[in-house]
Amino acid sequence: MQIISGTTEINWEQHTAVAIGKFDGIHQGHRRLLDRIIRAKEDGLAATIFTFDPPPSVFFSGKPQAELTTKEEKRRIFDKMGIDLLIEFPMNARTAAMPPETFVSRVLHEQLKARYIAAGTDLSFGDRGKGDWHLLKAMAEKMGYQVQVIDKIMYGGREISSTFVREEILKGNMELAEKLLGAPFTVSGTVKHGKRLGRTLGMPTVNLLPPRDKLLPPKGVYLSRMFAGGSWHEGITNIGCRPTVSNSGQMSVETYLYNFNKEIYGEYVEVSLLTYCRPEMKFSSVDELKENMARDIEAGREYWESRRAEKTVGQRIPV
Which GO terms describe its molecular function (predicted)? Predict the structure, then answer.
């Protein structure tokens, strides 16, 4: 996947199929949109995602917002999906004031050579957000592209949106968040050296320091899976500030992996949070912390063993 970031000058030769949006969370609605441009590759078009950096909501409010998916996470997900080109178009006073007609003719038509555009019903772009899918359709014949408007996906009578996903994650409702996203909610990053307390207690953990712009669910313990070393591993994760042994207030993501003993410091890993188990607690001593860690790990072990047993039963061939 090629990435063009931080410039308004886009040099691209191939005709493209374009999806425009923030894609925060890359939820089911986003995936439907992206599926359309990926399928357009069969017609020789380059599957292209167009985003603004920073997102318009952040630019206009002047306030940073924790993201469901960080820029690095989006890049990795888009690459795995088969996207050919990612545009991270700079959002500033000049680009924000660009007339929507100019955006279509100059950026989409001249620079990206768009032949197909997939648009959500809530799409807005250009000066004061006046551009929308109606404008895209009005200019389609003259600019030589086709427009497909993608309807929202509903869940429980509500439109799936980044706001909906965000609300459920902040409640710790990871199962529903997974349904809305189409995949488990994931925290990723480079494995860091911790205080080695877990190793000292006989329960070593893989430690991540989440980016400041990453949205996190409530502090506590979660059943999880980690992608490391090219495969997925069962685990249990604590998200929090480690109040029993530290008063720094620094958030960390610490994962104990079952049947795993490799050194992966410095590697990029992904932690999928599946089920919220309990809130983070401050214990009166390290010994009490150790006892509770052991109980959490054993409960997680029983969960994963039962999951494997259910899978084995489901795979048996009736006789």
Answer: ATP binding; FMN adenylyltransferase activity; riboflavin kinase activity
Amino acid at position 63, single letter: K
15 CB-near residues (< 8 Å, 6+ apart): 44, 45, 46, 113, 114, 115
Instruction: Verify that 82 and 201 share a domain, yes or no.
Output: no
Alpha-carbon gap, residue 216 to 286, rounded angstroms: 26
Q: How many residues does the chain have?
A: 319
User: How many domains does the chain fold into?
Assistant: 2
Q: What is the pTM (predicted TM-score) of this model?
A: 0.91
Query: Which pair of tokens denotes residue 269?
Result: 């890993």
Closest CA to 147 of 104, 86, 97, 102: 104
Does residue 168 lie in a domain region? no
The three-state (H, E, C) secondary structure of 45-108, written as one string: CEEEEEEEECCHHHHHHCCCCCECCCHHHHHHHHHHHCCCEEEEEECCHHHHCCCHHHHHHHHH
Please report, in tens digits, the pLDDT of each residue of the chain (319 residues total): 999 999 999 999 999 999 999 999 999 999 999 999 999 999 999 999 999 999 888 988 888 889 999 999 999 999 999 999 999 999 999 999 999 999 999 999 999 999 999 999 999 999 988 999 999 999 999 999 999 999 999 999 999 999 999 999 999 999 999 999 999 999 999 998 866 665 666 678 899 989 888 999 999 999 999 999 889 999 999 999 877 777 777 889 999 999 888 889 999 999 999 999 999 988 888 888 888 889 999 999 999 998 877 766 555 545 4
| CATH number for the domain harbouring residue 8 | 3.40.50.620
Nearest to 34 by CA among 22, 18, 53: 18
Q: Rounded distance, CA 129 to CA 108, Å?
A: 16
For 40, the domain range is 2-155
Structure tokens at 64: 């940073």
